[in-house]
Design brief:
The structure holds 2 protein chains of 2 kinds.
Chain A lengths: L2 H7 L1 H13 L4 H9 L7 H16 L6 H15 L6 H22 L2 H51 L18
Helix pairs in contact in A: 2-4, 2-6, 4-5, 5-7, 6-7
Chain B lengths: L6 H6 L28 H6 L21 H15 L1 H9 L11 H6 L6 H16 L1 H6 L10 H11 L7 H5 L6 H14 L5 H13 L7 H19 L6 E2 L6 E4 L3 H4 L3 H19 L3 E3 L15 H18 L3 E4 L4 H13 L26 E3 H10 L15 E3 L3 H6 L4 H10 L30 H7 L1 H14 L3 E4 L2 H14 L4 E4 H8 L20 H6 L1
Parallel strand pairs in B: 1-3, 2-3, 2-4, 4-5, 6-7, 7-8
Helix pairs in contact in B: 3-4, 3-10, 6-10, 8-10, 12-14, 14-23, 17-19, 19-23
Classes of the chains: A mainly alpha, B mainly alpha.
Chain lengths: ~180, ~550
């Protein structure tokens, strides 16, 4: 049996294990809720995470389309980028997949074949990890810009109220051309 | 050789698992992005509240008064005697957990101390220790713990991670109102001067100048005059709003956010256009007040006495002007204050008339005692009686969904009126999933004075369940605008959408009404109230 078949056969178990690893980054009580509450509107974090992981796992065996990976990865990172995680904690789950896969593959394939299969998959996981950095930074930049925009708006409003800013003026400056 | 860690060494240093200690032994970790700045001592002084001082939540020493534990204990005791509800809420919870996963802050942050049951337990544990025999004898075994500086910090951190939205209360089999517990807890914190500035300064402004932003009467009028100019550009009509007019039929009060912050300003223009229409068609005389220039009441998030003071000015102004009744704008918590507190706080307002629409004759039974009617109910009634000429096709470029603001929905039961209004002024309306709307609505995540800039992470997490449902209707139906009836929503949701669903904009409901309103004598409209071209209409104008 080849690698693809083995992984396809164990897909459910692998994704579940991966999901379990992600939700274990939350406190115990929370992890239980994230796992057991199935309604996507009552439990957006758990359902978004599971959906994204399923998609990412499938995309490992395609031609790694960046937009497609972002589609699965962005919703998960967007949540973790504002939650109580350091950047490494927020993104570590991607690399945890390597350990999970390695265990599965080592059980099913002989050493040489397993090594080669792991190498291939791990490179692909690294690519996903690199894309995750981009998404994470973009999320943090959005947060910072929301914060600065808020300050900017408040300052501008204060100036406007104090009549320190004239937006439309009927008086045109009488400037002479320098040519 | 490089002294960099190998990947294995680096990984060994990372622990993604939280300690499995009990909640009492898990110390509070105050994190940036999760809290609002401490109150400005000047604002605390203006209100005559105790222990005004400079302090910083990130510092070890909060500069508490020496006898702070005694102040809290006595404050707790006094309120247990004064508010029977608090006494019951402290005793009755059986920790069934029905509320635990209903809070938007728990869902978004994943922090168990944001489970409403546990947030309340922060206070209950001290209650047991100080006021119950069982707690005094068995201590921790009975879920009791003494008040320490760390416990106080935990109170402060988590009581300002609750928007008092009351979604949890909906699921409580005992009907415990967790918002009341937060209100009570914040009132205790205010005894020690531990408010946040996003609340304290607006309250001080409102107390002094009549609105949260501290806008003086002439500047308030100036802003509405700007809108008169803008409306003239859009409709060709020159409006003449009344200010402080004695003997007007109705006094109109709205949150000052509508007057000063986009996109609320467009809703404000909508009110003005609606009143002009009603004056031209039916002779209705509505006045604005530059003194009662705030519908919102951040006193509600500070202490009962402060809420009462701010609420009183609205009724004092109604009395001074001699109006028949008050019409209220699109606000959230203003309506909870009116609907659930005003009557026993400053009421009965027996100098006003029981509200009856002079145009349709409808008697607003629910406002019989408070004498204050919600603009959306008022408008829905006008539409129901065919009193407004409308062209919903002007809103055809909009695919609308409606966010039920927590207070008008859970606080006063207003579910159908805004939907009825929107469906009559827009042709494309799509509700979000049932367990995210009406009485089960998810909060914007920024209510109860938390819509500051410095707590952006908290706001984004608190608003996640709401944004998640918006994303669903955006992907399913192409929804591109999120309507609401609350000024805090209009201030907070644009940032939330920008982070989670950037394709969706935010609007007040009356803005949609005014876009569709066919005003007598108006020119052909080519733009909406935001001065953005109306698709299709622009072309016709060019021909």
């Amino acid at each position: 049996m080849g690698l693809a078949e083995i992984l396809e056969q164990h897909k459910g178990a692998i994704v579940n294990k991966w999901f379990q690893t992600v939700i274990e980054t939350y406190p115990q009580d929370t992890a239980r809720f994230l796992k057991n509450r199935k309604d996507q509107f009552a439990n957006p974090v758990g359902s978004t995470t599971l959906r994204g992981l399923q998609g990412l796992f499938d995309s490992l065996f395609t031609d790694l389309n960046r937009e497609q990976i972002i589609g699965y990865l962005d919703p998960i990172i967007r949540i973790r980028a504002v939650q109580d995680f350091t950047p490494s904690q927020a993104l570590a789950f991607i690399f945890e997949l390597k350990t999970i896969l390695r265990k599965r593959i080592n059980q099913a394939l002989d050493d040489k074949n397993a090594r080669r299969a792991c190498d291939q998959l791990e490179s692909r996981i690294d690519i996903i990890g690199l894309i995750a950095f981009d998404i994470y930074m973009q999320c943090r930049e959005t947060i910072f810009s929301l914060r600065t925009n808020d300050e900017h708006r408040k300052t501008l409003q204060t100036f406007k109220r104090a009549k320190l800013i004239v937006e439309d003026s009927d008086v045109q400056p009488n400037l002479k051309s320098v040519t | 050789m490089s002294d960099l860690l190998t990947p294995e060494e680096m990984k060994a240093n990372l622990d993604y698992h939280t300690p499995h200690s009990g909640w009492m032994n898990t110390p509070v970790n105050i994190r940036k992005g999760m809290y609002c700045y401490a109150s400005n001592p000047k604002s605390v002084e203006t209100l005559g509240l105790p222990n005004a001082r400079k302090w910083n939540p990130m510092e070890e020493d909060w500069e508490l008064p020496e006898n702070w534990q005694q102040i809290l204990h006595e404050g707790f005791k006094e309120r247990l005697e004064r508010f029977r509800s608090i006494k019951v809420f402290m005793d009755i919870c059986v920790r069934c957990g029905a509320c635990s996963d209903k809070c938007h802050f728990f869902i978004g942050t994943g922090d168990p101390k944001n489970m409403p049951v546990l947030r309340a337990e922060l206070l209950r544990s001290v209650y047991r220790n100080d006021f119950t025999r069982f707690g005094k004898i068995f201590g921790k075994l009975a879920g009791a713990r003494p008040m320490t500086a760390n416990v106080l910090k935990e109170w402060w951190y988590y009581l300002f991670q609750c928007t008092e939205c009351r979604r949890c209360s909906l699921f409580c089999p005992y009907g415990i109102d967790t918002a009341e517990i937060t209100i009570f807890g914040r009132e205790l914190l205010n005894l020690l001067g531990l408010n946040i500035d996003w609340i304290a300064t607006p309250v001080a402004n409102c107390y002094r100048t009549g609105n949260h932003l501290g806008i003086q009467p002439h500047a308030y009028k100036d802003m509405l005059d700007f809108f008169v100019d803008d409306i003239e550009d859009i409709t060709g009509l020159r409006l003449e709003p009344n200010f402080n007019k004695k003997g007007a039929d109705i006094l109109f009060i709205t949150p000052s956010g509508d007057v000063f912050a986009d996109p609320g300003t467009y809703t404000c223009m909508g009110y003005m256009m609606l009143f002009h229409y009603l004056k031209e068609k039916y002779g209705l005389d509505v006045t604005w007040s530059t003194y009662a220039s705030e519908g919102g009441n951040f006193g509600f998030f500070t202490a009962h006495e402060v809420m009462k003071r701010l609420n009183a000015k609205m009724y004092a102004e109604a009395k001074r002007l001699g109006v028949k009744w008050i019409l209220g704008g699109e606000c959230g918590h203003m309506w909870r204050v009116i609907h659930q507190y005003m009557d026993t706080m400053n009421g009965p307002a027996d100098f006003l008339e029981e509200p009856v629409s002079p145009i349709t004759g409808t008697k607003f039974e629910n406002a019989k005692s408070t004498k204050m009617v919600h603009i959306t109910e008022f408008t829905a009634d006008l539409i129901k009686h065919n009193k407004l000429e409308l062209d919903p096709s002007r809103n055809d470029h909009l695919k609308v969904t409606f966010h039920d603001s927590c207070n008008p929905s859970r606080g006063m039961g207003m579910f159908e009126e805004p939907r009825y209004v929107i469906k009559n002024v827009c042709n494309h309306f799509y509700d979000m999933p049932r367990n995210t709307i009406k009485e089960q609505t998810f909060c914007c995540g920024s209510g109860s004075g938390l819509n500051a800039g410095e707590d952006m992470e908290l706001r984004m997490m608190g608003g996640l369940p709401r944004a998640n449902a918006v994303r669903h209707v955006h992907e399913k139906h192409g929804v591109n605008i999120l309507a609401n009836v609350c000024a805090v929503d209009r201030a907070a949701l644009p940032a939330l959408m920008e982070y989670w669903v950037p394709e969706v904009d935010v609007t007040g409901t009356t803005e949609l009404v005014a876009n569709a309103l066919l005003m007598p004598g108006e020119k052909k409209r080519t733009t909406d109230l935001r001065s953005e071209p109306l698709p299709g209409m622009e072309e016709e104008a060019d021909e």
